[in-house]
Design brief:
Structural class of chain B: alpha/beta
Largest interface: A-B, 16 and 20 residues
Oligomer: heterodimer
Distance between the termini of chain B: 32 Å
CATH superfamily of the largest domain in chain B: Type I PLP-dependent aspartate aminotransferase-like (Major domain)
CATH topology of the largest domain in chain B: Aspartate Aminotransferase, domain 2
Strand content of chain B: 15-25%
Strand content of chain A: under 5%
Helix content of chain A: 55-70%
CATH architecture of chain A: Orthogonal Bundle
Distance between the termini of chain A: 19 Å
Strand order of the largest sheet of chain B: 4-10-9-8-7-5-6
Radius of gyration of chain B: 21 Å
Number of strands of chain B: 15
CATH superfamily of chain A: ACP-like
CATH class of chain A: Mainly Alpha
CATH topology of chain A: Non-ribosomal Peptide Synthetase Peptidyl Carrier Protein, Chain A
Number of helices of chain A: 4
Number of domains of chain A: 1
Number of helices of chain B: 14
CATH class of the largest domain in chain B: Alpha Beta
Structural class of chain A: mainly alpha
Chain lengths: 83, 400
């Protein structure tokens, strides 16, 4: 695992604990809406936490394409890599 | 596999609201008797869940203006502003809106929703940026989706968070339009507009304020929060609606930049829809004149606001905002409690709004009470009494 991915995964862990503590440890390939039962507002709030942790802005259209935490991590790695 | 399968979660949410008594979502109002009275489930109730902030829906001069236009100009324009639907009255209303602000340009849209769609998608395009408050209305988010610009959200009412996001854009911040609202309709809170202005000026960004719920309510001439805070010289665009304080339907975008006029050639939600009917435009022109001169109406509205806030805060309810405004959101612990309160108020003759996730920020369950200048002191007393009785004795029929 490279440094960027490690940093992104840690940011996601922190954000999950802050925004959705009731979920505990989750499967990172689980569908955010279907399997984890999150609504659009919960997903947006989660991403806000991750943005603060990584000091990066995630364009809204990326969220529409992301289905799982691992997919989100992939996109975040690309964004963090760009900064 | 069915196209309708994706609606199962929505159906499950609706099922939690019960199927006995009047529906709390899209509640059927059988008759409207006045700006503040209607009939629901066969009984007369106080309407405390409308956006009729100045109470102009039955104002005789507004009604007569609509009647006269209906007789003289017919029921509809049957076409878009670009084709056959641009009447003298549309241009007159635009001139009056621009004149109210002292600005060179105003554009009328067929709904408030389309005003945001049309302004955001037309003004900001490929290679540019939209920075929107995370609690923005759906019309703002949909305007962003229709735009080719990159959309970035910042934390609700947080100028420091906006500051960091503009800083990340570097020189591109000059190609960014920041979007905030003058009054957020879910929690009833207002933005620190002066701080947002300072941040956007420092980065050379642009600013649009959606005054949908604040137009008519704030400011000496009712132009909104921007006027009230003395910031009209600091913003680039103001969007508003005719369907709240102006008591009709439609929307507008007004700007100190004369180039706004070019939006008429670039905005799809402006171009590809029928223009507002003559009766709507005539009623709106009259309502606008009353709004601008409506200091007394605003004083009545704000007396009602102070009255309700004082009483409800004394009851110990948690509110969506400490800033008194025409929308009061009472935060309730869960959906069942919010539904209980909504049904209880209705049983006591008061219609309010039930607001639940995902329509609400932070997963909150809200009872939303909206006030009008047309409410009497006795109306406010009845709303307070209904809320008070809920504390002591929840309604028997409110468990479903």
């Amino acid at each position: 695992m490279n440094e960027t991915r490690k940093r992104v995964d840690e940011a996601i862990d922190l954000a999950m604990a802050a925004a959705l503590p009731e979920l505990g440890q989750v499967d990172r390939d689980a569908a955010l809406t279907g399997d984890l039962g999150l609504d659009s507002v919960q997903i947006m709030n989660l991403v806000m936490e991750i943005e603060d942790n990584l000091d990066v802005s995630v364009p809204v259209d990326i969220l529409a394409e992301v289905r799982s935490l691992n997919q989100l991590a992939d996109r975040l790695c690309a964004l963090v890599g760009d900064t | 596999m069915s196209l309708f399968e994706k609606f199962s979660a929505l159906a499950a949410t609706r099922a939690t609201l019960g199927d006995s008594g009047p529906a709390p979502i899209a509640t059927p109002i059988e008759r409207v008797l006045s700006a503040t009275r209607g009939v629901i489930a066969g009984r007369e109730v106080i309407l405390a869940g409308t956006n009729n902030y100045l109470g102009l829906t039955f104002e005789p001069s507004v009604v007569k203006a609509a009647q006269d236009a209906l007789t003289e100009l017919g029921t509809g324009t049957t076409g878009s502003r670009m084709a056959n639907g641009s009447y003298a009255d549309h241009r007159a209303l635009e001139a009056e809106l621009a004149g109210a602000f002292g600005w060179p340009s105003a554009i009328v849209f067929s709904t408030g929703y389309q005003a945001n769609l049309g302004a955001l998608s037309g003004l900001v395009g490929d290679g540019e940026y939209l920075l929107v408050d995370s609690d923005s209305h759906a019309s703002i988010y949909d305007g962003c989706r229709l735009s080719q610009a990159q959309t970035i959200r910042f934390r609700h009412n947080d100028p420091d968070n906006l500051d960091r996001r503009l800083a990340r854009l570097g020189d591109d911040a000059r190609k960014a339009l920041v979007v905030v609202e003058g009054l957020y309709s879910m929690l009833g809170d207002q933005p620190p507009l002066d701080e947002f202005v300072e941040v956007k000026n420092r980065h050379g960004a642009w600013l649009l304020v959606d005054e949908a719920h604040s137009f008519g309510v704030f400011g000496e001439r009712g132009l909104g929060l921007t006027e009230q805070m003395g910031l009209l010289d600091e913003v680039d665009f103001i969007v508003g609606t005719f369907s709240k304080s102006l008591a009709g339907i439609g929307g507008f975008c007004v700007s100190p930049h004369a180039e706004l006029e070019m939006l008429r050639l670039a905005s799809r939600p402006y171009i590809f829809t029928a223009s507002p009917s003559p009766a709507v435009i005539a009623a709106t022109r009259q309502a606008l004149a009353l709004l601008v001169e409506g200091k007394e109406l605003r004083e009545r509205l704000h007396r009602n606001i102070q009255h309700l806030y004082r009483e409800v805060k004394a009851m110990g309810h948690e509110l969506g905002s400490e800033q008194p405004g025409p929308v009061m959101a009472i935060i309730l612990p869960d959906r069942a409690s919010a539904l209980n309160h909504w049904r209880g108020l209705l049983e006591h003759g008061v219609y309010a709004n039930l607001m639940i996730p995902p329509a609400t920020p932070a997963g909150l369950n809200l009872l939303r009470i909206s006030l009008s200048a047309a409410h009497s002191e006795a109306d406010i007393d009845q709303i307070v009494a209904a809320l008070d009785s809920m504390r002591e004795q929840p309604p028997k029929s409110a468990t479903g």
